[in-house]
Batch of 2 targets.
Target 1
Amino acid sequence: MKQFFTPSQLARILREESPCKHGHTIVDLAAGHGDLVHPFANSFSDHILVDIDEEAYSILKKNFPNASHLLGDSTDQEFITKIKNLNKKIDLSVCNPPFNYRNR
Ligand SMILES: C[S@@+](CC[C@H](N)C(=O)[O-])C[C@H]1O[C@@H](n2cnc3c(N)ncnc32)[C@H](O)[C@@H]1O
């Protein structure tokens, strides 16, 4: 699967510009290795990190050992129900969804 991970400098800028910098739970619905969520991590006590790719998921578990990790398709309604069933009040959701370049 083609993957583009957020450069750390850009992730820091996004955190600086975010209206929500602190809270209880943050979720990343397509977390990759966690590069986007990383600068937010210390300001949130709880992290829900999702990825569909098994390799990214295993790296995510190493990078964020204390997070709730979910392997699966975050666009799937049943999967969203699974997140809801964690019964956590989510303060912030971040996502850098997959995309492709089209050659014209
Ligand atoms: C563009 S990368 C961004 C990764 C990370 N959030 C970042 O910014 O560095 C997109 C990620 O979404 C994952 N992904 C793609 N489709 C997904 C889906 N339907 N549900 C969950 N994750 C998905 C990919 O495996 C990949 O790790």
Target 2
Amino acid sequence: MPKGEDFRPEIDMANPGFKIGLKFATAELFRKAVRIYSINCGRELIFMNNDRNKIRVVCEEGCLFVIHASSVSGSTYLQVKTFNPTHVCSKGTKNIHATAAWLAERYSGKLRLNPNWTGSSFAEQVHQDYGYRPSRATLYRARALAVDIVEGSYSKQYEVLWDYCHELRTRNVGSTVIIKSEMEGPHPRQVLSAMGVDANNGMFPLAYAYVEIESNSTWLWFLELLSGDLNITNSHGYVFMTDKQKWLIDAVDALFPHAEHRHCLKHLYGNFYMEHRGLALKHQMEAIARATTVPWFHAEMRKLLELSKPAHDWLVEKDPAQWSRAYFKSDSKCDMLMNNLCEAFNHSIMDARDKRVLTVLERIRLYIMLLMAGIRVFCEKWHGQVGPRIRKILEKNKGKA
Ligand SMILES: [Zn+2]
């Protein structure tokens, strides 16, 4: 084998250089180095042949640039035999070698540190660094590939899901962990959750599931498991509160026919607001919901009638057992009107929702762990990141839990 330096991919690949005698362990390594060199120097270099033993690289017609490498006999090595780095051409604004795979590899570190990097700032960065503007489709693919690099590929994550669940079971004795994996389709993206309320009106997470879609069948599956886990044989005395999603109403009614089923007041107000606006109406609606006796309820309803007959008539149609304290069952010891706990939970995991399965599950687990450990400082810090609305709720409830 002729003498010559070895190309060290781990060091040299970021900014490859060539010289006569330089040796590459394989033809693939040489090709990769040429592609990156091509991007770095701003020229679209061309591979003249696809031979394992002999590769000639040139620039555009008339340019002097050339690399010629050929195999070292009896090995997989390829050695540079001819090299002229002189370009008489000018730099281009596109490059066939700046592929999504290259972008993903080149920028995965940056994407990891800054997961919310927008497509346009990504494109701007590439342009600044190399003078190219990748297409949106290329950027999109690059981002997906970079996520694979950072978070482990989608299928890989599912491969270790069983190990992850096994670990959950052994570390959280008494918890139920179930995988049902008949799912098809590449990206299940919904988190279902059931939040309980403890004796201090604090959040007590009961169960969560990562499912393909939110539907009647996934809610039924989830609530059946919840029912079994909580050992609910007779649903008397239980209170469920939902945002009135159609399939959730059906599932709760089917599985817990004797339970009280409330609808979140905030959600009801959202519908009310579509037709009946104004702060006075809002406050009156809240006063009606907060009234704790039937005569009081009617007195507040009459006040609403004085304010607006259409608003009154709209509300009269709604079953007060679902949203007014005056009509809640007296055997339940919970007077909550709103789903704030679920909202706080959903907001806390919001930014992890479009991540890979293990990232989502880990985020939920960490959030619950902090809650359960009673580390209020951490929880408040956590909530501190979720925006002004939830912060307000937390401030309002300060000292309660
Ligand atoms: Zn050239």
